[in-house]
Amino acid sequence: MSLLDKIDKPRSPQHIAIIMDGNGRWAKAKDLPRIEGHKKGEDAVRDVIEAAISASVKYLTLYAFSTENWNRPKEEVDALMDLLVYAVAKETPSLIKNGIKLRTIGDSQRLPENTRKALEECIEKTSKGEKLTLTVAVSYSSKWEVAEATRQIVREVQKGILREEDINEKTVKKHLATRDIPDPDLMIRTGGEYRISNFLLWQAAYSEFYFTDTYWPDFDKEALYKAIIDFQQRERRYGKTSEQLEN
């Protein structure tokens, strides 16, 4: 019996964000080149997307490539960009068929032209999807995002669109890359590390965190269901007491 049967779907997290970690270590453990781990990670992405839809999750955000990842060896970065182009082209028909809308967040100006073009084409072709909104964070970091939001707000103040005294949390949220989607209810990190690595720092203020030693290429549907079940056993208080939630 699948763990899916144990999930209370009406109480599934609306938005799950995942730090997909462990591709390189998975490959190293098998004496393979690091890029083979990234290729195998594609299968996990496909599995998790399908599992998210089955569990009635509406938003899924995947941390694919951080701004810090540009500091990796050039050959690995180039291979990752090529792999991303290949994967997007390969998966677009499936995304359309399954009602999945693709969107991206991050500093797209740093992406190679062919990578940016492939993503833009897929975003346009999947724009009608209504089952799941899939956000891929590419060339993304939360510090970059907050700095960019700050620059936008400053420009609006200078133009007289905003007054300084009117700036509040809602103002900042409206200028974040994720302004069109809800904050994540559940954030998952694979690979055995216990940090969130500059990912959705503002949005994760009240997210539930789930860490697993499983490397990303081995993270399958049942692994996601297990994380959702764990999430459903928690009490989310948002600063209130348990007694307040009962009333």
What is shown here, in short?
By secondary structure, this protein is α/β, with parallel strands linked by helices. It has helices at 23-29, 34-54, 74-97, 113-125, 142-158, 169-174, 221-232, 242-246, and strands at residues 15-19, 59-66, 100-105, 132-140, 186-189, 208-211.
Structure description:
The structure is a single chain. With 247 residues, this protein is of the alpha/beta class. It has one domain (11-140, 182-246): Decaprenyl diphosphate synthase-like (Undecaprenyl pyrophosphate synthetase, 3-Layer(aba) Sandwich), CATH 3.40.1180. The chain is 43% helix and 15% strand. The chain has helices at residues 23-29, 34-54, 74-97, 113-125, 142-158, 169-174, 221-232, 242-246, and strands spanning 15-19, 59-66, 100-105, 132-140, 186-189, 208-211. The protein has a six-stranded parallel sheet, sandwiched between helices. Strand 3, helix 4 and strand 4 form a beta-alpha-beta unit. The chain is globular, with a radius of gyration of 19 Å. It starts with 14 loop residues before the first strand and ends with a helix. 35% of the residues are buried.
Calculate Rg over CA atoms. 19 Å
Q: Given this structure, which CATH class is correct?
A: Alpha Beta
Number of strands: 6
CATH superfamily: Decaprenyl diphosphate synthase-like
How helix-rich are the residues, as a percent range? 40-55%
The strands making up the biggest β-sheet line up spatially as: 3-4-2-1-5-6
Task: Please summarize the sheet with the most strands.
Answer: 6 strands, parallel
Alpha-carbon distance between the two ends: 36 Å
Secondary-structure class: alpha/beta
Number of helices: 8
- Average predicted confidence as pLDDT: 94
**Domain tally:** 1
Low-confidence stretches: none
Task: Work out the strand percent.
Answer: 5-15%
The backbone outline, from C-alpha atoms, is globular
CATH topology: Undecaprenyl pyrophosphate synthetase
Question: Secondary-structure element order, as H and E?
Answer: EHHEHEHEHHEEHH
In the CATH classification, which architecture applies? 3-Layer(aba) Sandwich
